[in-house]
Amino acid sequence: MAKIIVVTSGKGGVGKTTTSASFATGLALRGFKTVVIDFDVGLRNLDLIMGCERRVVYDFVNVINGEAALNQALIKDKRVETLYVLPASQTRDKDALEQSGVERVLDELRQSFDYIICDSPAGIERGAMMAMYFADEALVTTNPEVSSVRDSDRILGILASKSRRAVQAEEPVKEHLVLTRYAPERVERGDMLSVDDVMEILAIPLLGVIPESSAVLQSSNSGVPVILEETTDAGSAYADLVARFLGEERPHRFLTTEKKGFFKRLFGN
Amino acid sequence: MTSDRTLEAPFELKGSLFTLTVLRLHESDLAAIGAALDAKVAQAPGLFVHHPVVIDLDDLPVAAPPPDFAQLAAMLRQHGMVPVGVRHGSEAASSAAVAAGLALLPESRPAMRRSDVRDEESGVAAAEVLPATVQPTAVAHNRIIATQVRSGQQIYAADGDLTVLGAVSAGAEVLADGSIHVYGSLKGKALAGVKGNTAARIFCHGLEAELVSVAGRYRTIEKGDSEWEQAVQIYLAGENLIIEPLVLETSGHRKL
Ligand SMILES: Nc1ncnc2c1ncn2[C@@H]1O[C@H](COP(=O)(O)OP(=O)(O)O)[C@@H](O)[C@H]1O
Ligand SMILES: [Mg+2]
């Protein structure tokens, strides 16, 4: 049975699209047939990060409106077998995401996919609501700062009260915390909240901590999900996250600053 | 009126909550009150214009005669206020107020004064036991929320108590006609006794609230206050909102 997973946050710019791309790629690398859908109608940047922007012919809204068949709009990834992207429309507005249309497309995807990853836009308006509504599980993406955590708390409230599972009184949406852009030295200086602070406020299980990393910007500029850059810190943090999602035990890494050696401490870098 | 409205009742009666300005009299001498009103209105002209005002007699010395309500009402109107009623009057004062066309408002005093609430063995005598002003409802509609109340959510327990097993996040709001119990930390707003039940209380395990209120009397709390992050109960003693730690006593009983 296919699982629908929303990557959501409330706040913009926290790393939802980065996480969606690497999470979907990671699941596909493990052999699961996975599709990642861009719900950010009008902005459309998942296809850039996935490196398939030049292959977009039809999009999610075309499929909802019946202007294209699903398999015409799905873009097959060139690097990872079993990975597909359903891009957003750049020209329509968010009202094009009409609930029964979204449901019809998701139902069709459920027939042949193991995982359906929904990359949510920021905010709590239509696009975000539609990305969340049908979810079975949620990756709540948060940066270690007060406003981001507050928005994530808000999103958790909406998941618990307005999602399809909540409305139909089914088992609640399974929630996972993904803490991104984590910078241990800024936490130690007290400029950022710590993992413990964030967990204390949100009180949901921690799936992964992704460090603030220059590798993210570099890989997204070249259209490669950072998880494919296996040797980078952010890439291996996403690989750990996927492993934990699939039930493997992996210790959390990148939570503390690297211990500097005696000479480095003495003379600086 | 168009014909299709003739079948409808000409009006509808509904209960509603309002914030009224309370004028607490310290004496009943109209000349003194008039002079003080002149001074207040001169300070802030226009401030009281069309404001509904309740005359509270609670602070009047027991021996003092009630004011002449008709004259007092006229004086308030001259200053732009709209007198609507009287509360905390003796029987005689209340009937004089009614005769002057004023309404009688329910008392705001809690059913028990703080001294009644203290440990009986401490020897503090019960000062005064007032009749309960809030009719106990036949069925208490208590609500239990088994999860955390998240930012942006508002939970209201009408006609009863509210119990929250998780935390109340910053930006969340919990309200009850009765008392509120929070087993996690209380970081949002908590308003107990929202329909005026002055005996309602708030209990929580870690007080970090943005605002707490009982029967309309509210307080904000800040990091650094002595109650911060403490397990406390919050209740009204007269007009004062008391925040008191839930202390484990030597007998092993929590103080209530
Ligand atoms: N772990 C990270 N380290 C450094 N930069 C990051 C990280 N995650 C995301 N970013 C950057 O933050 C910006 C916003 O990321 P994005 O995934 O588009 O967020 P969202 O989809 O939530 O708006 C991008 O410029 C991205 O490169
Ligand atoms: Mg995005």
Structural account:
The complex is a heterodimer of chains A (269) and B (256). By secondary structure, chain A is of the alpha/beta class. Chain A has a single domain (3-266), classed as P-loop containing nucleotide triphosphate hydrolases (Rossmann fold, 3-Layer(aba) Sandwich). Chain A has helices at residues 16-29, 46-49, 60-64, 70-73, 99-112, 126-133, 146-162, 164-167, 184-188, 195-202, 214-221, 233-245, 262-267, and strands spanning 3-8, 34-38, 75-76, 83-86, 115-119, 137-142, 174-182, 206-211. In chain A, strands 3-4-2-5-1-6-7-8 form an eight-stranded mixed beta sheet, with helices on both faces. In chain A, strand 3 and strand 4 (83-86) form a beta hairpin. In chain A, helix 1 (16-29) packs across helix 12. Chain A is globular, with a radius of gyration of 18 Å. Chain B folds into two domains: 21-104, Alpha-Beta Plaits; 141-245, Pectate Lyase C-like (3 Solenoid), CATH 2.160.20.70. Chain B is 14% helix and 26% strand. Chain B contains four helices and 15 strands. In chain B, the strands form three sheets. A six-stranded mixed beta sheet of chain B has the order 5-7-9-11-14-15, with no helix packed on it. Chain B has a five-stranded mixed beta sheet with strand order 6-8-10-12-13, with no helix packed on it. The longest helix of chain B is centred in the N-terminal third of the chain and has 14 residues, at 30-43. The chains are: A alpha/beta (269), B alpha/beta (256). Bound molecules: adenosine-5'-diphosphate (ADP) and magnesium ion. Residues 16-17, 40, 45 of chain A line the site of magnesium ion.
